[in-house]
Amino acid sequence: MSIRVKLSILSILAMLILLLNLFALKFAENKELQLAEEAQLRYLSFQLADEFRQTSQDLTRLGRSYVVTGDERYKDAYWEIVDWRSGKIPRPDYVHKELKPGETIVQTELMKSLGFTIQELDLLARAGQFSNDLIATETQAMESIEQGLIAEGPFQADEGETVQAFASRILFDDNYHSEVDKIMAPVSEFFSALDRRTANTLEESKAEAHLWRNISSAFSFAIWAIVAVILYFTMQSILNPLKKAAEAMSDISEGDGDLTQRLSHHGESEISDLAKAFNAFANHIQSLVQELHNTFGNIGHSSEQLSSTAQDTDQAVQQQQKMLNKLHTDIDNLVPTVKSIASDAQSAAADAQESNKEAQQAITVVNGSIDDIQLLSQNIRSAADVVSELASNTNDIGSVIDVIRGIADQTNLLALNAAIESARAGEQGKGFAVVADEVRQLAQRTQDSTQEIQNMIEKLQHGAQKAVGSMTQSAEQAIASAENANSAGQSLERITSAISEISTKNQAIAKASDEQSETILSVQNSVDHIQQQVANTSAGSEKTTQNSHKTQALTEQASQLISRFKV
Predict the structure, then answer these.
(1) Could you tell me the pTM of the whole model?
(2) Whole-number mean pLDDT of the chain?
(3) What DSSP character marks residue 236?
(4) 276-563 CATH
């Protein structure tokens, strides 16, 4: 079950209990209001009962006062009480403010409106009946005083008894007091019944209000318990796993960059999904760092091999430079020899008249020329072999350059992949992005350098091919010169028989020597060109070595950055 569902269930349960708590509080408030109303009703009931008792006592007091004094005010006050109690006139203002002062209402009806029970009303009715009986006595006494004679009523005057004595007797004798006690007896019983009923009602309302207050307290405790459960569940299911996730992310982003950190996960909650996603991300980053570490190791190894190859190439080029210098020196030495041959041939033509001595000298010179030409041919062939080897080496350099270009392309691709992965990683991948950008720029500069070297090598190969062609032609010409010299030697052997033929041959030799001199100069120019190409190749090899060292340094720097992560 997911955290959202669990929290939703607990929240719904808390809301239900809260609603029940509000209902209980409302019910308790209603009961407390009812309790207050019952208390007020009890108070008004006692006030009304006391009003009944007090008015009964007032009637007795006013009736007696009138009989004794004859003051009309007592009689008027007496009948006023009787009238407003019976609902004939409005109730006076001095009654309690909650007992409808100024309204015309029978006192018993007011008692009913306050909820007096039938038993209580019966008691008051008995008291009222006794009071009415007493009013009849009091009325007879007051009318007798007012009329000056014995009025009709429940009592009869004694023989010879005056009106004043009669009125006083019936209001002050034991019978009158007995009637007053009859009135007070049901009134007292009424007060007791009213007190019991209202007290019980108050206690019941108080008990019910207390009960609903307790229920509300129980619901409040339940709500707090659920809140505590939610907080505990939040701590255990959300905050603690999030704290562990934050600690794991801190271990990755700080210190040694521990990419072996993993989060434990159980169930199918959102935190479990977060832990799974974090573990998958950590696995991906760990694999990526391992691949980058291996890749930079391969790049460093390739850079070392490239540097070693460039150094070997530079050494081979320097060796070729030495050989070309020697070839240049040999050619420089060959030119005077050829010129000397031409001079000797011209002298032989001029001195054709000389006999065998000159012929023998000419044969000797020709034989020397043959040896020199053969040596020249061998040197030209050696130079052609060197140039061919140079062309072969440039092809090997081209292969190495292809390897370097492939490594640069692979490095550029890896840098691009690293940049993409670092972009996915967000803030944590900024360091990878900087290193990947530096590696990509280095790969681009390596590609540019390899392209420049490739262009130079192509020029060198083209020049080498031309040099090989020229040297091959020179070798052929040297062979032809050797054959001509041989023919000249044979001619010299026959010098004694054909001076003119010797002269012709010497002229041919002189001409051939001139041509040979020109050919040697052409070979010398070709060698100079090859030396220039070799120098360019040496410079390119040196630049390749420098780029290899720079690539190796950047690779080591990137490897050091990556080695900070624990994989």
Answers:
(1) 0.32
(2) 78
(3) I
(4) 1.10.287
